[in-house]
Amino acid sequence: MRTVLLIIIMAVAVNTAYPQQTARERIEQRRQTESAKSQFDITQFQGQSHNQLNEIIENSRWSRIIYRHIDLTNPTNTPLNNLFAMIFRLLQKDEIKAYEYLDGREQFTDEFILSFTDFIDRFDIYNETENGSIVVHDADIPTNEVLGYYLKEVYYFDTPTSSLRVLPVSICPIISRNDNYEGITRYPLFWVPYSEIEQQARQIPVMLSGINNSMRGTIDDFFRKRLYSGEIYKTGNPGNLSISQYTNTPEEMKAEQDRIEKELIEFENHLRQSDSDSFTKNIQITTNQNQQKNVRTKETSSGGTTQSMRNRRY
Description:
The chain is an alpha+beta fold and about 325 residues long. It has a domain at about 45-235. The protein contains 9 helices and 12 strands. The chain has helices at about 1-45, 50-60, 85-90, 115-120, 195-200, 220-225, 245, 250-300, 310-314, and strands at about 65-70, 100, 115, 130, 135, 145-160, 165-180, 185-190, 190-195, 205, 215-220, 230-235. The strands form 3 sheets. Strands 1, 2, 3, 6, 7, 8, 9 and 12 form an 8-stranded antiparallel β-sheet that branches. The longest helix has about 50 residues, at about 250-300. The chain is globular and about 65 Å long.
């Protein structure tokens, strides 16, 4: 009798715990799925060349080019403080290509390649020559003068995953110098396709959050996860006009920036809602199918002649 009672108690305990275990498994599965999707978002297009990115954009059903000004005096963008030193050394070693900053559209062709020698001469960067090689000491790299970047990014609809993707396309360091006549003046230095610096950016560790100091990653993570803060100064448009060129006041410019940001957010939210609705619809279909199956099972069970010994036992 005691053995039977013990078996009953164990059976009740297992039946009680099973739904909780199942719920935990569902939560953990959902967490792993979201984590995998996040990692997929970050790594799916790593290593793509600039030409490959252009091909992705051209073949997408929807895309939009956004230009942002990343202000390094904003604490949110602090992880990028050492980025210019990396770009400078890569350019000096001829490991990356830099392209002229033009007032019009950026041109990533051989005709507009900016050599390291031309760059340091144009912006009066102190250097020495040793054994026929140009030497620039760390203290002479104008890192403290680079107070911002122009970032070109592309928002596009990724057909295979039916989701919005955002990728950094190219980046332009900006030096801020005090002009005796005009005060502080910004001088865009050159454009670099992000694919040129991607591998090195993935090797430079940074703290990704000022609130959660355990949140660490790389400069590439900072860009891929869009942790930077930057105001929109231009979008891709037929006339290649910056926002300041078709607005008349700072208030109008701010309103236009907010409008564009809102459009991007609403488009992304719409895609997420569509995914959620599709998921809910699939769940409802599965539930209805299961309910219909249960009804058929009950109808069959009540027929008498087709009822199995297993069904009659309980």
